[in-house]
TrEMBL record:
Top-level lineage group: Bacteria
Source species of the chain: Parafrankia irregularis
UniProt-recorded name of the protein: Uncharacterized protein
UniProt xrefs under InterPro entries: FAD-binding_protein, FAD/NAD-bd_sf
SUPFAM superfamilies reported for this sequence: FAD/NAD(P)-binding domain
Amino acid sequence: MNEREFHTVVVGAGPGGLMAAHRSDVPAPGLLLLDGGDDVDDRVSVMRSGDRRDVVTRGFGGAGLFSDGKLCLSPRIGSTVSHRFPPALVSKRQHAIDEILRSGERADLHGSDAEAAKGLEELAETAGLEYVHYPVRHVGTDQLPRMLKRLRIRLSGNSTIACRTTCLDLRPSGRRDFRWELELDGPVFKRVHAVNVVLAPGKVGASWLGEVGRALDLRRDPARPKIGFRLEGAKEFLAPLLKVATDPKVIWSGPDGVEARTHCVCYGGNVVPADYHGLLLVGGHATSTHAENRSNSAIIATAGRRLPLSVADVRGLVTGINSRYGGLMSQRLGDFLSNEDVAAGRAVRGFSPSLPGATPGDFTTEFPAEIVHVLQSYLHRLSTMCPEILNPENVLYGPAVERWASRFTVNDDMSAPGHPGLYLVGDGPGLTGGIIGAAETGWIAGDAITAEAHR
């Protein structure tokens, strides 16, 4: 058995793991950064071949740093731990992360027009919605490979990088001076011992992390997933929102925990299939040129206490849809809303659908009735801000799911209480929901590891 020793092992090379590796200044025997997916060049090659499924969600850079690259600079967005720190400190850290992750790639900062944002906030309020405004950089899909290659070169100077390497098991080490033993499946490493382990598996690794958490008795709260679809229309159909922000967040909070919101808006981009360990979902991405004649946004919802769906419930629902439709399904918006009050008399501006091969279906029968009602109600409310939302020729693709991960309990340095040397960061443990938030938790963990190593 090939056994090695490292001071620190980072499991997952998404934004959380990359920033943890970047901020960890550790002595010999050094740091190992591993990921179960492909390295940068291999991801690019597979993407260009047209097979986007698994490569979108796994590999060096993670999901967001390969498929769309939205850098949301706000303490309010994408993190459940930012509130623990002074806002000025969070802002300073996020802007530093922005520079590091982009690695020289230029991207405009959108969302600086406070007056226009105020107008949207007031309009949202009239429809019983909340518009959350924050600055965003969008690093396009065309820029991300160059960015990731520069990041990889920078990290390879002080880290051993092992892609196509999966962590099978994690347990306390029996070796002196090492706290953890990891069983790996990869071409080089099979078993390693480490003083510190950073678990940053991303959303795609949330179920695996759940198993690890049960084995180690880590504290956590159960996940409350949101489910919905991607809404696609002509390029400018979201123009009233996109003129003010690159990734507008519009939220409806109803009674008994009901909630619906926009998520990951892609202007001039595509809807793409994304494989999450055998479950096929929809994602979205756009290049920096926003060249496509269509735009899309995820619309996700929870029925709250009226229908408290568990992760197992949603996995079963997605599995059933994938099986019945041979993958993803699609539906004309006018059919989902039964053509009731949908853009009567409004001119239809043509666009070519992203996924013409998606099997036609009916979300009103595939989703629970409570979820359907929330989604339909939300779309009507959202049309107050953006009338073209209700164009009957818009297309729905699904399923889309967010909030897969249970939220694990962590200390302020991202360490797991009662488990010295074990750190949890990013989307996988349910602490974040985006690139900057995930990277910030990795930054915090890396600083803690560095501080301990130099005592």
